[in-house]
Batch of 2 targets.
Target 1
Amino acid sequence: MKSHLKDILEQVRQGQITVDDAVKKLKDFPYQDLGFAKVDHHRELRKGFPEVIYGLGKTNDQIIKIANAILDKGSNLLITKVEESVYTSLKKSLPQLNYNDLAKVAFLKQKEPPGGQGKIVIITAGTSDIPVAEEAFVTCEIFGNTVEKLYDVGVAGLHRLFGEMDKLMTAKVLIIVAGMEGALPSVVAGITNIPIVAVPTSVGYGASLKGLAALLAMLNSCPGGVGVVNIDNGFGAAYLASLINHL
Amino acid sequence: MKSHLKDILEQVRQGQITVDDAVKKLKDFPYQDLGFAKVDHHRELRKGFPEVIYGLGKTNDQIIKIANAILDKGSNLLITKVEESVYTSLKKSLPQLNYNDLAKVAFLKQKEPPGGQGKIVIITAGTSDIPVAEEAFVTCEIFGNTVEKLYDVGVAGLHRLFGEMDKLMTAKVLIIVAGMEGALPSVVAGITNIPIVAVPTSVGYGASLKGLAALLAMLNSCPGGVGVVNIDNGFGAAYLASLINHL
Amino acid sequence: MKSHLKDILEQVRQGQITVDDAVKKLKDFPYQDLGFAKVDHHRELRKGFPEVIYGLGKTNDQIIKIANAILDKGSNLLITKVEESVYTSLKKSLPQLNYNDLAKVAFLKQKEPPGGQGKIVIITAGTSDIPVAEEAFVTCEIFGNTVEKLYDVGVAGLHRLFGEMDKLMTAKVLIIVAGMEGALPSVVAGITNIPIVAVPTSVGYGASLKGLAALLAMLNSCPGGVGVVNIDNGFGAAYLASLINHL
Amino acid sequence: MKSHLKDILEQVRQGQITVDDAVKKLKDFPYQDLGFAKVDHHRELRKGFPEVIYGLGKTNDQIIKIANAILDKGSNLLITKVEESVYTSLKKSLPQLNYNDLAKVAFLKQKEPPGGQGKIVIITAGTSDIPVAEEAFVTCEIFGNTVEKLYDVGVAGLHRLFGEMDKLMTAKVLIIVAGMEGALPSVVAGITNIPIVAVPTSVGYGASLKGLAALLAMLNSCPGGVGVVNIDNGFGAAYLASLINHL
Amino acid sequence: MKSHLKDILEQVRQGQITVDDAVKKLKDFPYQDLGFAKVDHHRELRKGFPEVIYGLGKTNDQIIKIANAILDKGSNLLITKVEESVYTSLKKSLPQLNYNDLAKVAFLKQKEPPGGQGKIVIITAGTSDIPVAEEAFVTCEIFGNTVEKLYDVGVAGLHRLFGEMDKLMTAKVLIIVAGMEGALPSVVAGITNIPIVAVPTSVGYGASLKGLAALLAMLNSCPGGVGVVNIDNGFGAAYLASLINHL
Amino acid sequence: MKSHLKDILEQVRQGQITVDDAVKKLKDFPYQDLGFAKVDHHRELRKGFPEVIYGLGKTNDQIIKIANAILDKGSNLLITKVEESVYTSLKKSLPQLNYNDLAKVAFLKQKEPPGGQGKIVIITAGTSDIPVAEEAFVTCEIFGNTVEKLYDVGVAGLHRLFGEMDKLMTAKVLIIVAGMEGALPSVVAGITNIPIVAVPTSVGYGASLKGLAALLAMLNSCPGGVGVVNIDNGFGAAYLASLINHL
Amino acid sequence: MKSHLKDILEQVRQGQITVDDAVKKLKDFPYQDLGFAKVDHHRELRKGFPEVIYGLGKTNDQIIKIANAILDKGSNLLITKVEESVYTSLKKSLPQLNYNDLAKVAFLKQKEPPGGQGKIVIITAGTSDIPVAEEAFVTCEIFGNTVEKLYDVGVAGLHRLFGEMDKLMTAKVLIIVAGMEGALPSVVAGITNIPIVAVPTSVGYGASLKGLAALLAMLNSCPGGVGVVNIDNGFGAAYLASLINHL
Amino acid sequence: MKSHLKDILEQVRQGQITVDDAVKKLKDFPYQDLGFAKVDHHRELRKGFPEVIYGLGKTNDQIIKIANAILDKGSNLLITKVEESVYTSLKKSLPQLNYNDLAKVAFLKQKEPPGGQGKIVIITAGTSDIPVAEEAFVTCEIFGNTVEKLYDVGVAGLHRLFGEMDKLMTAKVLIIVAGMEGALPSVVAGITNIPIVAVPTSVGYGASLKGLAALLAMLNSCPGGVGVVNIDNGFGAAYLASLINHL
C-alpha cells in the first residue's frame, strides 16, 4: 500500500500537500478484485474502519471469500444480518468467528481498533428492540468505543428513564432504539444536550408499517439534536456514533 | 315528532319495550328533505346532539338552508371548517351566528345542552396545534361539557407538563392534540389512567406527511388507553370525549 | 413499595397534596432490572393494570423471566401475540398458564381485578375477525370487566345487527372489530350514543393493504363517537374500553 | 363515413360477416387531425357515445377547436372538469353552450341520444358529494338515460336511506357517491340485488387522503355487486351505468 | 321463513306494498346463530345468491359448520380462498365437495340456480392471471351464468386479441383479468361498448406493488365503461358480472 | 480550456492514453464559481450538451447570472420549468431568449449542435399531455435531433395509432408521453422493436396520484423495450433519446 | 407463416408497401392456442426476439407446454424467475435446459441470434445485486449481444469505479444495477455520455421499501441519460439495452 | 432562576450531586405561561440554546408575544419558516429583527453564544437547495458556530466536489443538503470520515414525492456515517451539527 490515507489527510490539514494531490492518490488506492466483489482494502485508511460485509443477498461462498480477503490484511471482520444457519456454515471455514445471536452479527477481532474519546450509551424503549441495539453494540465495540447499555426504559414507564439518568448523562453520544410510536428520542432530546442517533425498529404490527411509523416520528422530532438512520439499522447508528465519538 | 329516542332507549334499558319495537320506530323518525340535503332532525334524540354541518364542499346557500332548518327546530347550530369569508357571508343571513376564528367554527347556541358529569381537559403539544384544539373546545362547550385548556406542554419541555399535572389529573377524559412526532399522548398515557382521545394535527412539514406521522405514532402508542381520531379532527375528538363525559 | 399511586392520585384529587409532590414521588417508584428488561412493578398502581408482556420479538427465556417477575408480585399475567409453539414452551416453566388459541394470548389470573361499572360488548363484522375480538375479550376479562360477544353482524346482512340491538344497547362501551371496508363502526355510530372503540383488522387481501383500508375508513367515520386503535390491536381496544368502563 | 360500427357489430352478432373483416374495417374509421388532437369521429359509432372532452390541461383554444369539430358532425358535446372562468370564455365562441356549475361540466345537446331501458338512480352520502353526483347526472342525461337523484342519505342517519327505499328499488343501476369512510355502497349492496357503480369522492380531510380512504373501502366491500371508478369520477360512473342501462 | 324477499321486492316494484312495509319485514328475516357466525339464510332471497364463505381466517371447524348450515337449507355452497390442504380436510366432512385447484375454490351445487340472460366472457392478459380468472369462472357458473374463457390475449401480442374478437363480441358482460401494467381493460374499452368488470391481479413484482399498479391503471382508464374490483378478486368480479347478466 | 473531453475519450477508445490518465485530467476541468452556483463549463465536452438550468427554486437573478455564464462560453441555453412571468422578467436581461409557452421552456440557440443520426418521434396519448411532450420537443431540437410529433393517439381510439404507423415506424427512438393509466407505451412496445422512452404525466386526478399510476404502469410494462423517466420529465426523456439517437 | 415481419417492416421503410397494408397483415400472424396460453410465434419476427416465459404464477405443466411450443419452432428458450426446484422438475421434460442459479433463469439456445453492434457493460453497486445483474447477463447473451461484467463498484468506494473506467467506456449501452440508495446510475451519468438503463434492486431493508427507495432515486437522477425499469427487472433492462445495441 | 442546568450537569459529571437530585430540580425550572404558549426559559440552560419559534401555524400576534418573552430574558431570537409578509409585519413590533429572505428565517442576536470547537461546512447539491442550506447557515451562526458554505457541487459534475475537497476536509461536521435523488451524502460519506448530517429537500417534482425520494435515499446510504433529518429541515440539521461541534 503506497500511502496511508490518514497521513494524507493529516498533510492536507496541515497544508503540506494540496487536496488536489490527495485526490489524485485516491485512485491508486488498492482494492482486490474477486470478480463478484472488489474488496476495498483502502477503506480502513479512508474511513477509519475496514470494509464491513452486509450478509443479506450473498452466498455463503461469497461471504467466506470476502471475509478471508479482509482477514488476510490483518483487519477486523464484521458481518451483519447473518442468520444462525449461515453462521454455522461460515464457522466451518472461519473457526474463530464469533456470533451475537440476538444481533445476528458475526465478527472476529484481530487487532485493537483506535479508541474513541468518550462513551456511547445505547438505549432501547423495550425488550423487543434489543436485537437492533445489540447490532449497534457489537459494531461500536469492534470500532473501538466504550459502550454502555440501558435497555427497556420507554415511555410506558418514564420513571425507569429518570431513574437511570446518571448513566445516560455520562455519554458523549446516545444511540436510541425504539419501535412502535418511536417517541423515546424526542423525550430524551427534550431533556439533554447530547447528540442522539435515533434508530427506528420494525417492532410493532399493523399501522407500525414495519417501522415506518417510528421512522417518521423520529424524523419529526420537535426537540432538536436527533439524526436518524434506517429502520433496524443498528450498524449504521453505531457507525455514525463512532465517528462522533472519535472526533 | 312522535317519540323521543331518549325515551325509547330508556324504555329499552328498563325492559319496558323490546328493541325490535324500538328499531321499527326508528324508520319513522323525521328528516326534512331540502333536495340537496335531508336534514336529520332525529339525530339530537338518537345521539344526544343535533346534526352538525361540515362546512367544506358546500355552497353558502346550502349551508344557510340547512342551518335554518336546524335552527327552526330550536336546536343548537355548529358549522365546522368554515373559512372566515364564508362566515362573513353567512352572518348576513344568520346575524346571531358566532365565530371562533382560530378554529374556523361557526356556532349559535339556542338552548342549554344536557351537562356532562366530569371535566374534559384539552391539551396541545405546541402553539401551532391550537386551531384544532379550539375546534374541540367549541364543540365540547356546545355539547354541554365543562372544559379546561392546557396548551403548549409538548415533549420539547416536559417540565411544563409536569408543572401542570394537577390541572390534568382533574379530567374525566383528556383530548390531546399534537402534530410532528405526535409523542405527547404516549407520554401522558404512560403516567395516567384517564382515557385519552388523541388528535394528530397536520402541523409540521416534509416527513410529517400532513399529519400522517403523528397519526401513525398515536395508533402505535405503547402505553394503552389511547383512542385516535382523524388528523385535525378536533370536532370528532370532542364528540367522543363528550359521549364518555356524559356516561 | 413506599407509596400507592392510587392513594397519591386520590390525595391530589382531594387537594391534600400538591401534584408537584406527587410527581416527585413518581421517580422513586419501583422497577425490577433484569438487564434486558426493567419490569415496571409500579404500573399496576399507576394505570390500574399491571405490565402486560408483548410477546413478539422476545425470546422464550426473556418472556419467562419477565412473567415470573410479574407473578412474584402477585399480579395477574397477560402475554399477547404468542404463537402456540411458544406457549407450549412457556407452559413447561409456567404450568398454570392458560391460552386462548384463537387470540394467541396466554394469561394467568392470580387475583380478582377491580370490577368495571358497566358492560363491554365486543362486536365483529365477520367470523374471520374473531381472533382479534378474542384478544380483546381475554384482556377485558382479566382487567375485571363484564363482557358480552356479538359476532358476525357485518353490513353484508344488517338485519343480523338489528336483530341483536337489545344486546348491543345494554353496553356502556362498544368494541367493534372489522376488516375489509371497516364500515360497521360507522353504521353503529349512526344509530347509538354509546362510545365506540373501533379495531380495524387485517382481514381481507389486495387493496385491504393488510388492514389499512379498514383503518382509514374508521378514522374517517362520518358519524361521531368513534376512537380508533391500531390494526389487529384487540388488546389496545380492550385497554381503552376498560378505562372507560371503570370511570 | 364508409361504414357504421353499429351495423358492423350487428352483422357480427348475426354471423353475416366475420370479426376479421370487421376489425379490418376498424382501421379505416375516420378521425380528424387538428395537430394537437385527433378527434375520433368514429367513437359514437363504436361506443354509442361521441368523444367527450376532458377539460383539464387543455388551453381554451384547444377545447374550442375540438368542440367545434364534434359539433360540426352533429354530435352532442360534453366537456368535463371545466372551471367557470373557462366556461365563460368558451361561451363566447360557443354561445349555446350550457353549464352545470356544481358539476363544472359544459354541454350542448344537438340531438336526442338513444334511450336507456331502465332508470339510473344517483345516490350521495352527503351534500358535499353533490358536485360529483351532478357530473354523473349531466353525463347520464346526455347519454340518453332516465335519471333520478337521491341525495344525502349516508350512514350518519340510515333511516333516511330506509325512508327512500322505494325510489332506490326502482333503479336498474345505482350510482353511489360517497367520501370520507365510503361505507354507503357496502350498506346498499347488503340489501339490494341491483348492480352498483361506486364513486369515491375527495370529500374529507386528513386521513381521507383526498378520497383514497373511500376508494379503498369501496374496493373492499364485503357484500358483492359493487364496481368502482376513480375518485371524483362522476363521468366515468355515468358512462358505465349508461352502458349497463342500455343493455 | 315468513316471506320471500323476491316476492316482496316484486310487490314493491308493482306498488302493491310500500317500501316501508318491506323494510319492516327485513328485520324479521331468518339467520342461524352458530355463536362464531350468524349464517344469513335470507341472503339468497335478498341478493339472488346464498351466503358465500370467505375461507381465509376461519378454522376448518368453523368452515364446516357454516357449510353444513348452508347445505341444510338446500342452497349451493361456495368457499373461496381455500388452500388445498384445507380442502382435503373439509372433504372428509363434506365428501361431495368439489375443488378448483387453480382458483383455490371449493363448491357443491345442490340445485340449478336461475340462469342469466346473456354470456359472460372472462379474459386474461396472461397465463399467470388464470388462477384469478378461474375463481371468477367457478363463481359465474354456480351463479347460473353461461361463461366462456379467453385466456392470454394481453398487450404483448394484440393480434391474439384481434383474432378472438368474434368470441369477445358475443358477451353481454366482460370480466378482464390482468396484472403488471393492467392495460388490457383500457384497450378493450377503447374498441367495444360492452360493460367491463376489471380485475387487477398481483401478478408481477417490484413496482407492481402486489397488484396496486394494475389497480391504479384500471381506475384511471381513459376509455369509459370500466368498473373495478379488488386485486385478485375474481369472486367479486363474477358477482357483479352475474348481477348485470341477470338484469 | 486545456483539453477537450471528446478528444480524451477518443484517445481512450483508441488506446492512445490510459483511462487513468483520462480521469486525472477530469479534475482539472473548468467550472465557474458564482458563489450560489458552480457553472459546469466542462459538461458540454463530457456529455455532449452544455449545462441546462432547472428553473424551479431559483431566483430570477440566479437564473440570469447562470444563463449569462453559459452564453458567454458560446453555448446554447436551455431553461426548463419556467413560468411565463419569470420568462418575461428574464427577457429584459436576455432579449434574444425564446419561450415555448406550452412547455414552459426558455431557450436560446447560439450555434448548431452536432446532429443525431436518426429521427425521434414524440407521441402523446392525449391533448392534455402536450405540455410535457413540447418540453421534450424543444430539448430534442436544441440537442440537434430531427424530431416529429404524433399527438393524441391514445388507447381510447387505437385506430388513430394504427393510422399513423408509417410515421411511427420511421423513428430510431420513440418518446411516448401518457397520463392516466399510462397504457400507450405497453401497446406500442407490443408491436414495434424500436426503443421506447416512456414519460408518465400528471394528467388525471384522484387515483392517478399526480402521475404515479401512469409511472407504475410503465415500469410494469409486460412487453419489453421500455425505459421510464420521471413524471412530467419531458426534458429527461429527450436527453436519453438524444443520447441514443447520437450513437 | 405467410409473411415475415422483418420483410414487411423493410418494405415499409423503403416505401414499397403502405403501413396500412402492413397492419392488415399483422392480424393474420400466427399464434398457437394451448387454451391456458396463446403462444405468440409471431413475436420473434415482430420484436426480434421470441416470446420469453415469465416463470412466476405458472404451473410446471404450463411452463413445459409453452416451452415445447417455442422449441418446436426452432426458437431459443428463456424462462425467468424460476426457482431451482421448478428447474429440476422442468429438466426432466427438457433435459437440455440450462440454469443460472444466481439469476434463477432457465434457458436453451438452439440457434445463434442476430448479433448486436456494440458491447453492453453490466455494472453492479454491490455483490448482493449480482442475481439481478446475472438475469440481465443471460438475457443479453441469448439476445445476441457482447456483454462484459463490472461488479461491486458502488459509491462506498468510488475509486473502484474510477479504476475500471476503461472497461466502462468501451460500452455502447450501460446496464447499472443498484439497491439501497441507488446512487450509482446518477454518478455514472454525471461522467459519461453513454445511455444508461438503470435497474433498482430490492437489496436493502427497512426504508429501502423493497427497492422503492432505489427506484425513486433513479427516476430523479439529476444528470440526464438514464432510463429506468422495474425493481429487480434484469430481464427488462437487458431487453431495452439489446434493442439499443442492435440499432 | 434558581439553578443553572449547566452547573447541575457539571456537578453530575463530577459526581458532586446525584442525577436523582438533578432531575428533581428539573421540575422547578421556569417557564412563562402566555396562555397560548408556555415559553420555556429553561431551555437555554438545558439544551445550550434558547427556545426557537417555529413560525408556521402561529398568528403574528402569538409570534410577537413569544418573541418578546424570549428577548426580555436577554436570549437570542430565531424564528423559522416565516414568510416575508409576516416578517414585514413582525418588524413593526420588533424593529431590530433581521431576515434571511432565502431561508425565510427571522433572527435577532442579543449576545454572543458559546463558540463551537471546529467548523461546520454546509454543502448543497444544487442552487435550488440553497434556501434550506441558508436556514441551516443562520441557525449555525446564531448557535455560535464557525460555518463555511460549499454550494452547487452535486453529482451532475463531481469534479466540482473534488475541486473543493480542501474546503470540505477542514470541517468537523458536514451538513449536506440535496433534493431529487439525494445521492450527494452517500458520495461524500464514501470518501471522508467526517460525520454527516444529511438534509433531503423538496427540490424536484413528480416521483421526488416532495422530497421523499431524497429522504429514502439518504436513509439507505450504503457508506456509513450519515444521520438524516426531516425534509427541508435546515434548522434541525444545524441543531444536531452544532451539538456535535460543541462537544
Target 2
Amino acid sequence: MISDQKSVHSSDDLEPVAGNGLLHRRVFLTGGIGLAAIALTEPASAEPLPIESWMKVPGAGFDGYGKPSKYEEKLARTWNTAPGTTGTGAARTPLHLLDGMITPNGIHFERSHSGIPDINPDTHRLLIHGLVKRSLIFTLEDLERYPRESRIAFLECGGNGQLLYQKEPVAAGVQAIHGLASCAEWTGVKLSVVLQEAGVDPKAKWILAEGADAAGMSRSIPLAKAMDDALIALYQNGERVRPSNGYPMRLLLPGYEGNMNVKWLRRIKLTEGPTMTKDETSKYTVTLPDGKSLQFVLPQEGKSVITRPSPGLTLKQSGLYEISGLAWSGYGKITQVEVSADGGKSWAKAALQSPVLSKALTRFRIPWRWNGGPAVLKSRATDETGYVQPTRDKLIAMRGSRAIYHCNAITTWAVSEKGEVKHVYA
Amino acid sequence: MISDQKSVHSSDDLEPVAGNGLLHRRVFLTGGIGLAAIALTEPASAEPLPIESWMKVPGAGFDGYGKPSKYEEKLARTWNTAPGTTGTGAARTPLHLLDGMITPNGIHFERSHSGIPDINPDTHRLLIHGLVKRSLIFTLEDLERYPRESRIAFLECGGNGQLLYQKEPVAAGVQAIHGLASCAEWTGVKLSVVLQEAGVDPKAKWILAEGADAAGMSRSIPLAKAMDDALIALYQNGERVRPSNGYPMRLLLPGYEGNMNVKWLRRIKLTEGPTMTKDETSKYTVTLPDGKSLQFVLPQEGKSVITRPSPGLTLKQSGLYEISGLAWSGYGKITQVEVSADGGKSWAKAALQSPVLSKALTRFRIPWRWNGGPAVLKSRATDETGYVQPTRDKLIAMRGSRAIYHCNAITTWAVSEKGEVKHVYA
C-alpha cells in the first residue's frame, strides 16, 4: 500500500492563506507537511539509541488511583482567595498546558463562595418544593435509579476574562486570564424528569437552586431552561463529581454562566419569578456605562482564545508551528474560528477538531510559518446562531469600564523577535 | 411554557418491549418516566431540610491538582502481578462504578511487562529507522511542533475477558472480568506525518514499535495501519499521557489490541515483514482447538457488557431501574446494542448515548422494571460492519478451551430474588 503513498498535499498548501505566515488548514487535514516545510530532526547515527537508565531496571508497580508524571509539576491550578479566607475565591485551569477538549478532573476550574464542603453522600438530601403538586426529598440512592444522560459540556465562570476590561493589558497568560473555563463529560439525571415527578404547578416560571456550602450559594433559573437540557450531574468524566465541582451532585445548565450550575445541590424551589438572591444582585450582573446593570445575562457568549503559542510558551526558532486554541459558545455549536497573525489585518479559517459538540469546548488548529519577526496573534469565534466574537474595543464601547462579567472579547498575543509571547491590546 | 408541559410519554411506553420487564428506550429519550412508574421519594415535611454540619463552617481551600472525594475509596484499580515482581501484570478499571464513556486518567487500565519506567522527557528520544530514506531522531520538543489531532478511543488489552474461557463461571464482576478496557481523548501527532518526513521505502510493509520499558515490549504493525489512523499520543484526556499509559509518548492504534499501542515509544523500524517478537509469538496469539495459533489478530472484535446492575451492585427493592453498559468495536462504530432480561429468549434495543464515535466506548441504556423475581441479563453488540457479538458457546465452539486472548463473548449476570447479581453461564 505504501508504494501508492504520494505526497498528500500540493505545494499550494504551503502558500500563505493570510498575512504573516498562516498556512492552509488543509496541510493538517491531508496528513502531510513535507520535508521542505519542517526539519526539526537530527540525523541518526548508525548506532542505535543509548540505553537509558530506566530501561535497565524494572519500573514502578501499580497504583489504585494514579497521578501525572513528576516532571509535570506545572500542571496545576493557580488560585486567589478573598482576604482572610482559604476557600473563597477561584482556581484556574492551566489551559496553555492542555490539548484536546477534555479537562482532567484534577484541574477543572473551581469557584467557591465559602470553600469546598465535606459532604457525606449518605446523609445529603435534595429537596424539590415550592410550586409543585407534592414536595419531594431525594437521597443519592433514590436519584441513582433514575435514567441518566451524558453530555460533554464546557463550564465557564461568568467572571472569566474580566482582566480584559482593564485599561492596560495585564502581563498574564491564558491561565490567569481565561482559566475559569473547563470542559468535561457530565452524566446525571435530567432535571425535567425530577420536576415532572414532583408535578409542576402551571404558575411556576422560575426555579431557585441552592447549594449545600456554607455560603448557601443560590441562583434563579428560568423554568424553561430547567425543563430543556438541565442535568443533575452525578458523574464528571466517568467518575463521581469531584468535591470541588459539587460532590455528590451539582446542577449542569449547559452554556449558562458558571455559578448558575449550582454545586453541592440541596434544594430546588419552583417560583413565579426570580428570587433575587445575593448571588444575582450584588454579583453576577453586567454594569453598563450609565451605571445600570443587566441582570440575568445567562448564556456565555461565543468566545475563543489561542492557547499555543501563548505567554510562557516561547518559540525557540523560526519555522513551522501549529497555532491552537479553544472556542465555545453558550448558544450552541462553534461553526468557525478565524485566526490572524498580523493583528487582525487578515484572517484565515482554522480547522475545527471533530466532533464539534454543542456548548462544549472546541479545539481549533492552523499551521503557521513563523518568520522570526514580530507577529500579533488573534482568534475570532463564530457560533451556529451567527454570533461573532467581538473585538475588545467593540465590547468596551458597549459595556464601558465598569463591567466585570461576561467578557468574551478577542484576546491578542504579541510574539517578539525573541519568540516571547505577551498579552497586548492591539 | 411549563403550562404547556404535558406528560411526554404515552402509557404504551411503559409496556414491556421484551421479556421480564424491559421497557421501551423511548421512556428515556422523551425525558419522562411518570409518577406511576417510580416512587422512590419520601414526602417532604413542612420543615426545610436540616442544616448539615458542612453548611455551618467554611469548607476546604484550593488544591493544585485535586482528588476524588474521600467517600469514593472504592474508585480504584485492582491488579495482579507476576510472582516476584511489583510491576509486571495488569491493573483493571472499576467500570461498574463509572458512567459515561470517558475513563479518568487515574483509573485507566494498565498492562505493564516490567513496571512503569521513570522516563525523563528531556532526554527521551524517538528513533525512526529501517526502510526509510533517512533515519530520524525526535526529541519531545521536536514532536511538539508538528500538527496534532485528537480522538476519543477505547483501549482494550488483548487478554481482557479471558476469564470467560474458563469452564465454570468465575465468581467475579465487571472490573475483574472486563476491566482491561478504558476510553480517553488522545491527542498527538499522526504517525503518517512522521513517517512521510523520514521517507518510506516502497519495500516497507510493516513497522516494529518498541517501548522504553525494561521489558523492551515490542510489536509488529502493518504499515497500512501506521499510515491510516495511528497517532503518536502526547496527551490523554487533555493532559500529558500518564506514566502508566506511556509518558511521554505512546502509540495509539485505534481499535487494535492494547499492547500494540506501544507505551513509552522509543523506536519505530520499517521492515518488509513482521519481526516476530516475543510479545507476538509466546503471547498475544489465539490458540485454536487443534493447537495451532492465530497470529496477528489485530482489531478487538465487537463487544459489550452490562455494568449496572452487575456483581457487587445489589438491587434493594423491586421497581424501575436503568440497565446500563458499554459497547465497543475495533472495526468502527457501534450501531446497535440489544439487551435481554430473560437469558436471551427475547431482546430489546437499548438507547445509545450520542455522540457514538468510531472505535470508542459507547454507553447504552434501557429502562427495566424488576419484578423482584429471578432475572438473567445479557447484552449483545452489533457494529457498523454488521459484526454481531457472539455467545460464549459459539466462541468456545470456534476457539476451543486453549484460547486466552480476544474473548468478546456475551457476558451473563443472574439477578436473584434478593437482588444480588452473579456471573453465570446461561
